[in-house]
Amino acid sequence: MAELIAQGPDFTQRWRRRLNKNQPMVVGRQAGVWSTPWDDHISRQHIRVCWNGQSLMVEQMATARNPVFVHGNTATQFQLRPGEHFVIGKTTFTLSADNPRVTLDAPEPDHEQVFSAAELRRVSFRNAQERIELLSRLPEVIKNAASDTELFVRLVNLLLAGVPRADAVALVAVDAPSAVDPNLALDSGKLRSETSTSLSEFDAAGVSPQKPCSVAIRLLHWDGRRLAGANFQPSQRLIQQALAKRETVLHTWTETPSREFTESESIDWAYCTPLPGDACRGWALYLAGRFGHGTPGSAGHSDSTDIRDDMKFTELAAATLSSLRELNRLGRRQAGLSQFFAPVVMDALATDDPETVLTPRETEVTVLFCDLRGFSRTSERSASDLLGLLERVSKALGVMTHQILDHGGVVGDFQGDAAMGFWGWPLPQSDAPQRAALAALAIRAQFEMAAKQLDHPLADFRAGIGIATGRAVAGKIGTVDHVKVTVFGPVVNLAARLESMTKFVNAPILLDPTTAAALRRKLPPEMGRIRRVATVRPYGMTSALEICELLPPQHEYPEISDQHLHDYESALDAFVAGQWSHTLDVLQRMSAPDPVKDFLTVFIAKHRRVPPPGWDGIVTLESK
Question: Which of 56, 112, 463, 477 lies at a C-alpha separation of 20 to 30 Å from 351?
Fold first, then answer.
C-alpha cells in the first residue's frame, strides 16, 4: 500500500493519503481532499501524481507558480521511490509504501494496567491550556470533515499533536464476528481470525475477551512520527481487551525478554482507548511510543505514570468524538424523519415522548383536501411517457405539500393525484382555519401562475380545494401491520366532498360554514375574501350544507371586485327566496367573467326560470 504524506510547517498541517495504482491525482492548495490550504506557495493545482506500483510519477502542472524541489534541485517531472520526498514551498511530500497490520504475534506485555474514565478524570494535565485548546478544535474537525476518511485523518493528526510522546496513532475498528476461512491471507490493515465465535459470546462492542482471535480488526487510519509503517503492528490482544473491558488498557514492554520485539518496533508502551456510545460502536484509539531515554526495568516502568495525562487527553478526545458523532447521527436521523413528519410534528417529538405525541386523540382540526384537475386528460395524452407523467404529478403534489407544511400543517395522506393536510395537531392551533386558507390561496396562485407559461410542466393542471373544520381523531392511525400519521372523522369526508363540489359550482376553493365563519372573523380582506355560493344537498346525503368560496384579495384578483361579490350575494338571496327573475336581472348586470354565477344561471335555465314546487332554496347535486 503506497501513501503520499504532506507535512507543513506546523505538525497539525499534515495529511496521509492512499495512492491507488494507475489513478492520477492532482495536488494543490484547492484540490479537494488532496489540498494543502496551509501553504500559499502551492498553487491551487500544482502537481499531478500517479503511482504505478513501483514508483510515483510527479509532474508539475502549467498552472503552478513556484518550483518543485527534489534531491535539492528543481524538477518539473520526476519519479519518486518509497522513502524519498520532494518539497514545494514550506511543505514536504514523502512517499511511503508502509504496510502496517494488526498482529497476534506481539509478545506478552511486562506490565498491564487498566484505567477507568473516572480514574483518568482525576488526573491533572501538565500542560492543561494546550490540551484544552486542542480539544476545543475537535468540533470543528468533525464539522469541516467532508467524509469519514477526512475525519479520520484530522482526528489522528489532532492526537499526534496532543500526545507528543506518541510515535504512532491509529483509529481501529472491530468488524462483526463471523466465521472466516482460516486460509484467508492477511490484507493491509485487516486481520481475519482462524476461530469463529457465536454472537452470544460477544459483548455489546462485538468483542469476546475469552477468545482474542475471533474478530476482524481494521485500521481505519494511522499516522506516525518516526515509526516505519512496515514495523507498526498494533496488538490485537490489547485492542480486544480494551474493547471488552470498555476502559483504557496500557501495555508496557521494559524487560529483557521483550526487547527484541520492542526495539524493532521502537516502542516501550502502547495503550488502547475504546470510543463510547453507539455512534462509534467497536471503534478504538491505539497509541504507541517510547518513555524517553530511561533505562529498562523499574525506572522505565515508573515512567508509565507520566503518560496518564496522555491517556486522559485521549479519553476526552474519544468521548468528545463519540458525542459529536452521535449528535450528527441524530441530526441525519431527524432529517430522514422529516420526510415522514411535518415540522410541527418534529418539534413536538423533540420536546415530548413520541408515544404521547403520536397516540391518537380527539381534537379540533381544520382539514384541507386538494385534488388535481386535468389529470385524466393529461394521463391519456401521456400514456407513452408514464415516468414523465409521474414526475409532473409529483411536482404538482409538491406544490400542495409545500404550502401545507409551510403554513404549519401536517400532510395526512395522498390519494393518487390528491393530497390531504390538516391543522390543529399535535398542538392546538387557534388560527388553524386561517393557516389552511392561506395555504389554499398559495396553492391556487402557483397553479394559476404555471397556467400562464405554456412550457411549464404544470401548465395544464388546476387544483380543486375543499376546507372543513370540526372534531376528529388525529395521530398514529392504522393496523398492527401498517400505521401512518393522519386524521380520521366526518370532517375529513366533508373536506373531500367540498373539493368534489368545486367541479359543479366552478369555484377553485370551497369552505364549510364553520371555516367560513372563522375566516369572516379573523381573515383580513387584504389576505382573502369569502362569499356565499349556495346551499346545496350533496349527492347521496339528506342534509343540506351552505358552501362558501374563498377568493384572493381584490388587489391580487381584480377581475372580481368586492362590489361584484356583494351583488352576487344579493342575487343569491333572491334565488333562495324564489325570486328568480330578479336573480337573473342582477346576474346579467354583473359584467365580470365569473364561473360561479354561471352555476346559478344554468340551474335556473334548467328549470325554465320557475322555482320547482316546494322550493326550499336548496340545490340538490345529482352526482359526486
Answer: 477
Most distant pair of Cα atoms in the chain: their distance: 118
CB of 470 closer than 8 Å to CB of 518: no
487's CB contacts (< 8 A; 6+ apart) are 365, 367, 410, 412, 420, 422, 425, 472, 473, 474, 477
Cell 400514456: give the residue: 383
Q: Provide the 8-state DSSP code for 103.
A: B
Cβ neighbours of 155 (radius 10 Å):
22
Helices (DSSP H) in 306-385: which residue ranges?
308-337, 343-351, 354-358, 375-381
pLDDT by residue (tens digit) across 234-276? 899 899 999 999 999 999 987 544 444 444 456 889 999 999 8
Q: Which of 276, 143, 156, 144 is nearest to 220 (CA)?
A: 156
> What is the average pLDDT score of the chain?
81
259 Cβ partners below 8 Å, 6+ apart? 253, 296
| Burial track 464-496 (b if 16+ CB lie within 10 A, e otherwise) | bbbbbbbebbbbebeeeeeeebbbebebbebbb
Please, what CATH class does the domain formed by 2-96 belong to? mainly beta
- Intra-chain end-to-end CA distance of the chain, in Å: 72
What are the angstrom distances between the C-alpha of 216 and each of 183, 550, 624? 14, 66, 66
| Region class of 500: left (phi > 0), else alpha (psi between -120 and 50), else beta | alpha
Which sequence spans correspond to the domains of the chain? 2-96, 111-330, 343-620
Residue 416 has pLDDT above 90, yes or no: no
Neighbours of 267 (CB within 10 A): 24
Short-list 44, 50, 14, CA closest to 29: 44
Are 1 and 97 in contact by the 8 Å Cβ rule? The answer is yes
Q: How far apart are CA 50 and CA 20, in angstroms?
A: 8
CA distance 552 to 556: 6
Q: Quick check: 287 and 159 in contact, CB under 8 A?
A: yes
Question: Is the pTM higher than 0.70?
Answer: no
Q: Do domains 2-96 and 111-330 have the same CATH topology?
A: no
Per CATH, domain 111-330 is 3.30.450.40: yes
Distance between CA 486 and CA 476 in Å, rounded?
A: 7
Whether the CB-CB separation of 463 and 445 falls below 8 Å is answered with no
Confidence of residue 388 (pLDDT cuts 50, 70, 90): low
User: 32 — phi, psi (to 5°)?
Assistant: 65, -135
pLDDT at residue 286 is higher than 90: yes
pLDDT in tens, 34-50: 999 999 999 999 999 99
Query: Which whole number is the average pLDDT over 110-118?
Result: 88
Query: What Rg, from alpha-carbon coordinates, does the chain have?
Result: 37
Tens digit of pLDDT for each residue in 573-609? 999 999 999 999 999 888 778 889 999 999 999 999 9
